[in-house]
Structure formats: C-alpha cells, structure tokens
Amino acid sequence: METVKYLLSEDRLPESWYNIAADLPSLPPPPLHPATGQPIGPADLAPLFPMELIKQEVSTERTIPIPEEVRAIYRQWRPTPLFRARRLERALDTPARIYYKYEGVSPAGSHKPNTAVAQAYYNKIEGVRRLVTETGAGQWGSSLAFAGALFGLEVEVFMVKVSYNQKPYRRALMETYGARVIASPSTETAAGRAILAEHPDSTGSLGIAISEAVEVAAQRDDTRYALGSVLNHVLLHQTVIGQEAMIQMEMAGDYPDVVVGCTGGGSNFAGIAFPFIGAKLRGERPLRVVAVEPAACPSLTKGKYAYDFGDTAHLTPLMKMHTLGSTFVPPGIHAGGLRYHGMAPLVSHLLELGVIEAIAIQQLETFAAGVQFARTEGILPAPEANHAIAGVIREALRCKEEGKSEVILFNLCGHGHFDLQAYMDYQAGKLRDYEYSDAEVAMALAGLPSVGA
Q: Domain named Tryptophan synthase beta chain-like PALP: which ranges (predicted)?
C-alpha cells in the first residue's frame, strides 16, 4: 500500500516554538530607532506590542513554551497533515519524492492562525481590547479576525486596495469573524490621506497599510498593532509547522534533501524551514533550502541588504533586511501575500550567510504550476503557495534530468478557495508577467535611509 498522508495525533502537538536565533553563527543586526539611529529597546516597542511578544522578539533561547491556552486552540486543526505528492510525481515522471505540509486545513485556510492566535492571546492577557493590522491577500487579516473573535478582541484591518477589490470573499470572511475592513490607502489616517493626495488612484501596498495600522494603534492605550510576518516573534510562532514535519518525515522514513517555501515577508517559509535549518546549523543533517519569490516583487533576488523602514510613512523601526525600498508599490499580481517590499531580517540574514538560496518566478509559471497541482493532487493552492509549487516542479525536473531520487519538502501554506477570480483570469489569458527591471530597482532604492551599517 502506498501511503499518501502522514497524520499526528493531538498529543504530538509541539509544546514549544523553536527559536533559530539560538543556532545562528551570528545574530542579525538589531533594529534601530528611526530618530536616533540607535538600537531600539523594549520601551520603544511597548506602545505597539505586549511585553511577552517583545521578549520573544529579542530572545536567544532555543525553545519558548507555547501557552496551554494557545495549544488548546491549535488542536482544532493541528497537527496538520503531511502528504506525499505521488500523483504529481507520476505526472512529472520524476524520481524525486515530493512531500508537502498542508496548512490550508486551518479555520482561516492558511498558516497564519499559528501566530494570530498567539498574538491575540498575549494581547488579551495584557488587557488590550482592540487589535489593528494590515493585510495583503487577506489570509493574515482573516486569521487575526478569527483569533480576535475567540478572545473577544475588536479587530480592524487595513487591506491593500488592489486586494480589497480583487478578493471580496476574503473581505467577507473577515467581516463574518467580526472585523472591520478598510481599503488602504484610506482617508482615516494621516498616512493614507497623504498618499491619496499625491496618488488619488493608488492601488496601495503593504507598506502603506502598515503605516495606517501603526498610526491607529499608537493613538489609543487600549489598542495594539499585530503583524502577520517579518518580525522574529511571528516567524517563531510558525515553527510548529516544521517541527511537526520533522516527526512526519521520520514516519515516512525520509528526510528532505531540499526544502522549498514561497516568500513574501518570510513567515510560512520560516515555519517549514527553520527547524530543518537549525538541524543543519547544528551539524545534524545537510540539506538545501530554497526561497521562492515573485519576479514582480523580488526583495531577496534584486533587493539590497540594508537598513530600511518597514512601512511607507516611516513610522516603524529600521530593520536590516533585503528591501526594494519602503516606497515601493508592486504591480497588482494576485499573490497579494508576497507583495511586501522587504524580507524578514532573519531570512535575509540566512541568505547573507549562504545558508539558503533564493529564486524569483514569474506569475504565469506559478499559476501553471498551481493548476497542475490541482489536477493531480486535488487541492487548489493559494496564489502565494503556487510559487513554492513552481519551485518544487523545477527541482523535481532537475532530479529527472540528473537521475537523482532526492526528497523534496514544501509548505502548501494555504488553499485558494477565495482566489477563484485569479484562476478565472489565468484560464481566460488575462494574467501577465511583470519584470521588475534593474532601473526600477535603482529608483526604488534611491531613497533608502542613510543610517546603520
């Protein structure tokens, strides 16, 4: 009998998050205060985040216990299944063995609740009443709305305008969970009004939406900001994915030669890859790790490793990361969750150390990969996840050419049930590729702040 899925019982749910900072040969450069250029301290972050999350942000402990209240909610969908993509393997005629961890089984349909539930919990116990955030494709906004409903928190979401219009059903899900959703840029904040005054037809960006959310969060004592990717504590919470996958790969009698993940801000990539990278850094098992990003928003492959703001209005601390510039407004590709101008400092640092690789793939190739995956494996992937699948197909075909039976693992970070318009547009030939030219890169990077090394 050919085993297709590997399941863990609820008692195998990880008890701790894994912190890759403990195994790094060197730590990433610290975030800097935008006014002083000096490393920020806990007091600088306190207006935005609860203290427990701030502690996690700077921790170098290898494991951080998951509160039982969070694990109790995780058990609704975790541990998630690991699948062997046998039908895709046969369709590709590859000797490679392909596995995928499927995070689309969560209530919100993606990996994002892994951190949304944790963030809502820590805010709730600190007495916060309202959370405000941004979202691109809506997976993060949906997840925070879900978590807010569980903990009785008000949730306000600034949704990038192009996605607000492209994905009305994702917006409807957030509103069903009780969140208020605003198209960004909006007239509700000074940051939004400034953008609209200069660009009335702005389609928005995650950088702009972050500016609006941070501005609102700073105005009320009972309100905090929640971020769905990029920051260390967010990546930390996602490592339940890779920890489960390690056990499941052992059940399958395999270990990955290659781990592939799509990258926008870095959260789902870190979730699947960091536990395996940690084992590699500790000298336990070698492997390659490939980050796949859109050619239309290529922060890792064309961006500069430099200190930059996390938002367009320059309200956030400066982070050392691969960036396209905080004023970058990406084309309106359907992979809205991968359209952030910067990459997580930890992921950026790993690329600088040569621990991971990065490639950029065009939109049409990713949708072709998603359609092939749907027709073989039966799951319709989110456009973001299609980037990982396209990267996996490239690796599988390389194995075919080289006659190598390598093991490939990737994170299928979410389903595409709210992205059907994107698939309809692809089938109708309406989608096109966007090449981000070197000249555009140079223009976007021209305004990088002149602080930090």
A: 76-414
pLDDT along the chain (453 residues), means of 10: 95 98 96 89 89 95 98 98 98 98 97 98 97 92 98 97 90 97 96 94 89 91 93 97 98 98 96 98 97 94 93 86 87 73 96 98 97 98 97 98 98 95 94 83 82 60
pTM, two decimals, is 0.95
| 327 touches 311 (CB < 8 A) | no
CB of 222 within 8 A of CB of 229?
no
Count of CA atoms in the C-beta half-sphere (13 A) of 441:
18
Residue 32 near residue 309, CB atoms below 8 Å: no
Closest CA to 355 of 283, 281, 298, 279: 281
CATH number (3.40.50.1100, 3.40.30.10, 3.40.718.10, 3.40.50.1220) of 46-66+112-229 reads 3.40.50.1100
Amino acid at 121: Y
